[in-house]
Amino acid sequence: MSLIPKTITSTQTTTVTAPVAPTTGDVVSLDVIPDWGGAGYDAFVISSHVNGTAPRHATNTTGPGPNDNNITVATGVAVTFVITNIDTGVNENFTGPASTNFTIYNDTATGQAPSHYIKGQSVSKLPIGHTFTIPSLNINIPIPPDTIVTFTYTFSNPGVYEYMCEAPCGSGMGLTGYMNGYIIVTSS
Ligand SMILES: [Cu+2]
Q1: Res. 138: pLDDT tops 60
Q2: In this structure, is residue 21 part of a structural domain?
Q3: 74-102 pLDDT, tens per residue?
């Protein structure tokens, strides 16, 4: 499956365009939407569930998570995660080794500038808004503001894997359906 270019306009009027990258296997597209459920309730949202140019949860609830962000994939398939962060906020600086290979695409006036990180490479004081973290697999991907971040992972074992953001990003942090979700890995 190839990635489909798309454009999302954030509430801060910054436009990011997804990379068109050759890949095989499955693609999971997630957006990080600031204030999805109200002030401070940022969320990972399945991209196809995002509506409109000022994306918001349909009911704008600040209650329990809308559960729009669970993912199902199969074992043994290379899954490419495409995480589009339309949040322009910085919440902390990320320092540490790259937990796996990943690429950060920065939107520039002349197009997208990819920065490739190799597993083990040291990352120092990278300003980020969020992370995409799967604690049980030691995956911890930094997500800078207004970027698209991609990485590919093949799940070996069926199960339910919690993913989350570990950056201190507000009230949605730690809430299922906001900055937390689950990856259901089925046997192929
Ligand atoms: Cu976050």
Answers
A1: yes
A2: yes
A3: 999 999 999 999 999 999 999 999 999 99
In the reported structure, the alpha carbon of residue 180 is separated from the centroid of ligand 1 by a whole-number distance in angstroms of 9
What is the b/e burial string over 13-47, where b = at least 16 CB atoms within 10 angstroms of the residue's CB? eeebebbebebeebbbbbbbbbbbbeeebbbbbeb
Residue 25 counted as domain residue: yes
The answer to whether position 86 is within a domain reads: yes
Question: What's the gap in Å between 32 CA and the centre of ligand 1?
Answer: 8
For residue 119 the two structure tokens come to: 């597993």
The count of domains in the chain is: 1
Indicate the pairing of strand 71-74 with strand 180-186: parallel
Distance 131 CA to ligand 1 centre (A): 6
The model's pTM: 0.82
Domain membership of residue 2 (yes or no) is no
Q: Which long-range contacts (CB under 8 A, 24 or more apart) does 114-122 make?
A: 114/19, 121/97, 122/96, 122/97, 122/98
For residue 174, the tally of other CB atoms under 10 A from its CB is 12
The predicted-structure confidence for 90-137, as pLDDT tens digits, reads as follows 999 999 999 999 999 987 778 788 999 999 999 999 999 999 999 999
141 CA from centroid of ligand 1 (Å) = 11
* Residue 167 amino acid letter: A
Q: What is the CATH number of the domain that holds 157?
A: 2.60.40.420
